[in-house]
Amino acid sequence: MSNRYQPRVEQIDERNWLLRFGDQISEECAQRVQLAEQLAAAGFAEQLYDLVPAYTTLLLSFRMPSSDRRQLKIALEALVQEVFDSSLELNEGNLVHLPVYYGREVALDWAEVELQTGLSFERVCELHQRQAYRVYAIGFAPGFAYLGTTPEEIRVQRKSTPRLSVPRGSLALADNQTAIYPAVSPGGWQLIGRSPIKMIDWQSDSLMPLRTGDKVLFEAINKADFLRLGGCLDAA
Q1: What is the pLDDT of residues 187-214, one digit of tens each?
Q2: Cα separations (Å) of 37 from 19, 30, 158?
Q3: Which segments of the chain belong to CATH 3.30.1360.40?
Q4: What kind of architecture, by CATH, is found in domain 95-228?
Q5: Residues 42-92: pLDDT tens digits?
Q6: CA–CA distances in Å: residue 60 to residues 8, 187, 213
Q7: Is residue 158 within 8 Å of 175, Cβ to Cβ?
Q8: Which CATH code is given to the segment(s) 8-85?
């Protein structure tokens, strides 16, 4: 493997193994994680209970402990080798358009964002919509998609004291990431808007509108459209 980062296969416990593909968030590393997920799903289909991709890692959870840990580690190392030998010509994920109301009444941290960036809030919103964001991982809560990376001009720090309750659908910034809170929950990201789209729908066959590897493009809508599409101005 010619990559400067030496990938690792780590056993977490009897049923869980972690594959590490890098130590920095990047498009290339995300593609390797995505390819590893595909290969693992195909090669260990009957044995796996779950696969959890993240920015630089892939967690494999097996239904039963392996009777031969050494052979399993060799197989996982071979999978990692195949990933690094690949040209990474993956099928692109879907491009998903998500409507967002950037009104200050729902952008609860607009003043703090202005202070940290030195930009007007309107300029922050304009820059936020200018590019598509990759879904690097889904976690923290069901439907919470970690999207990146944001333009340097609008990167902000997390709140020093997290909120006890972030409204459902809140669009947020933190460091070089952006995300939509799928449900009311505690959270420390800076809130700049709200989307009417359900990020987790337990009644839907697809469950979530986003998958790892998808690209997301945010599109500004006005207050009337936000409410028409099911958005809520309340804190809940």
Answers
A1: 999 999 999 999 998 888 888 999 888 9
A2: 10, 11, 30
A3: 8-85
A4: Beta Barrel (2.40)
A5: 999 889 989 888 889 999 999 988 888 999 999 999 999 999 888 766 556
A6: 13, 27, 18
A7: yes
A8: 3.30.1360.40
